[in-house]
Amino acid sequence: LAKTTQPISMDSYEGQEVNITCSHNNIATNDYITWYQQFPSQGPRFIIQGYKTKVTNEVASLFIPADRKSSTLSLPRVSLSDTAVYYCLVGENSGGYNKLIFGAGTRLAVHP
Amino acid sequence: EAQVTQNPRYLITVTGKKLTVTCSQNMNHEYMSWYRQDPGLGLRQIYYSMNVEVTDKGDVPEGYKVSRKEKRNFPLILESPSPNQTSLYFCASSFLGTGNTEAFFGQGTRLTVV
Questions:
Q1: What residues does B55 pair with on adjacent strands?
Q2: DSSP per residue over B21-83, as a string?
Q3: Which residues sit opposite B104 in a β-bridge?
Q4: Fewer CB within 10 Å, N or C, chain A?
Q5: Does B75 contact A at CB distance below 8 Å?
Q6: In this complex, is the C-beta atom of B88 within 8 Å of any C-beta atom belonging to chain A?
Q7: Residue-wise pLDDT tens digits, B43-87
Q8: Contact check, Cβ <8 Å, A42/B101
């Protein structure tokens, strides 16, 4: 069971790029890396998923080195509305379904 | 609009009074699950279902029941609620498939048991 480690909290300012790194040393060959965002009292929201190298969508980029033992979520030019908890998940492939196991997440605070 | 709908959003009940929290999704997803979220403990899976009439326990199933009679609905049943079940509950759904980790979550149900 792959365990993830990420910073408990981070602070940033509007307009800056934020990089949140997640460590997952015992990631399995079939595991994918996924990031979710959660606002207070709302359900988590899928941001991005990757297996290796770099993935980019309209919201974020995900960088995964060749050994896949870590990954970095990059949020370009954050705004106040990006203040949220960000979770790094490493999928546990179980019968074709990746069980979602949430850790403590990183609490990002964006300041004016 | 693709969504997962939970009801009610807020519920205060008394110990021992049976209750049901409903969950419905309109995306034809095979997989549905329930989580509870508590301060300091994060999100923990209660039960999950991989298809109609197929359910299984998650990490914290004690005190809960579920059923999956239709693909779109996955109600969470508390037969005899206790104060330690006071929590924020989320329903989620997704397609089954190797490598798929994109799940859609409901807006949450805040339950208080007194």
A1: B49
A2: EEEEESS--SEEEEEEEETTTEEEEEEEEEETTEEEE-S--TT-EE--SSSSB--EEESS--G
A3: A45, B93
A4: C
A5: no
A6: yes
A7: 999 999 999 999 999 999 999 999 999 999 999 999 999 999 999
A8: no
Report the chain B residue with the minimal C-alpha distance to residue A29. B99
Distance CA A57, CA A74 (A): 11
B98 in contact with chain A, both atoms CB, cutoff 8 A: yes
Tell me the chain A residues in contact with residue B102 when contact means C-beta distances shorter than 8 Å.
Answer: 34, 46, 49
pLDDT of amino acid B100: 76
Give the separation between CA A1 and CA A61, rounded to whole angstroms.
25
> Alpha-carbon distance A47 to B66, whole Å?
28
Average pLDDT over residues B30-38: 95
What average pLDDT does the segment A13-38 reach? 93
Distance in Å, alpha carbon of B16 to nearest chain A alpha carbon: 26
